[in-house]
Amino acid sequence: MAANVSPFSAPEAYDAARVRRDFPILATQVNGHPLVYLDSAASSQRPLPVLRAVEDYETHSHANVHRGVHALSQAATSAFEGARERARRFLNARSIREIIFVRGTTEAINLVAQSYARPRFGPGDEILISALEHHANIVPWQMVCEQTGCTLKVAPINRRGELLYEEFEELLGPRTRLVAIAHVSNALGTVLPVKRIVEAAHAHGAVVLVDGAQAVPHSRVDVRALDADFYAFSGHKMYAPTGIGVLYGREELLAAMPPWQGGGEMILTVSFDRTTYNELPWKFEAGTPNISGAVGLGAAMDYLESLGVEAVAAHEARLLALATAELARIPGIELVGTAASKASVLSFTLAGVHAHDLGTILDTEGIAVRTGHHCAMPVMTFFGIPATARASFGCYNTEDDVARLVAGLGRVREVFG
Amino acid sequence: MDLKELYRDVILDHNRHPRNFGRLESEDRGGEVLHADGHNPLCGDRLSVYVRLNGERIEDIRFEGSGCAISTASASLMTEAVKGKERAAVARLFDQVHRLLTHHDATPDAALGKLAALSGVHEFPARVKCATLSWHTLNAALEHGSATVSTE
Residue A300 in contact with residue A46, Cβ under 8 Å? Predict the structure, then answer.
């Protein structure tokens, strides 16, 4: 995920033009221009193999899972549980008992907050996060603090948008029960030293949750090598449908946690006197799950690995380096987030032009970027700005997309004189 | 979609040089100042509107805050348009502005004056809330004032 790849380095073996053909939506015309999609950090697009896997499941295999002896129910169960095994391999988890299907990263973090932290933590206990976190990795912990009386600590960042690691380490102490940290910052693209963070947290007896939403599309994640206790991510940022994601949790931790939601699927037996819960991972999956979403997620993992996660990451790093160099030459552009190690994201402001005006003008040129606070208001507050424009790159972006962005920014400067 | 329709010269001018920008303090010239903060959580736009009433009439109005060109220019144009007007006339004006911003067939009423410059916004539905933020904030200040007067 290093961004230190020269845009002028070796000729590309990666064929982005071919990859683009897998994504039918990229042929869309927006406001009379071919779409330039630079908002994959908010949600990526889906390739044909994912669309087809979902359609195929819905067309030929759908029924409820784990409930019937009939053929379709068995087909659905096999597709759903096949996707779980696929996710296990994707993360190199030890067992499918460690793979919980959730709606997305947000639900995964809330599950850990309510089922791991809330029953265990109390006054005097501390949860440590960083100043780079997405709201989804802030608010669930604030709720736990309100519910239990424990305290939220925030490790600071520098002006480049990097975690101040020494200060983070100083905040770790005997009271730290849990560290919740982004693998990659959604607002700035900073890659955090999660392995080092996990080691340091474990040395203090704290468990670690890694918010991997922005990392899984750009890097190979091995939860065993990382030694994370919990790892959360969403499907829709890695070319899978919305409404499906994964919470990985170490089995011994998950086994000791009470269920989060009650209902069907998560039980073994129910009587009015006593209910016994299902085993892992189904203990945490009350209700009928997003079966087609899981099927799509499995297909997206196949797709991403067929391109090669490392090849995709190297391609995106080249685009990021190119865009960074090109934008730095535009008068009035200020890059927000200039960490040494970055992935996929280029956040910036343009002097005298609010991010929303910039976003509207780029949209009239067919260019989709995210504008606003990126669900990371504390990051914006730190930099003293209300909003940034954020261009983010995926496996299907090209040098031409960067050129269109640069031309679009020229148009913005024209309109605002 | 025509960008020139959205970013007319009047809009760009009021964005660059917002009129009636700043606060109103109660002690400035006596009289209580009504105040409300407007916040658009989706885009992070924030503005504060300060109003001094003389009976039913808006005697003075100012705003401050940070936002996009549309929200800043709309707030600036609003302060010019409502200063000196009775509250009832302001309510009617807001109705007309709202119609202008949301209806495709709306032709600017002569009564709108410079506010007609906002007519291009209706082509950009995502930006309507930018243009209405200052008006909603003004309403909050006026309504809040009629219940419990807030002084700054």
Answer: yes
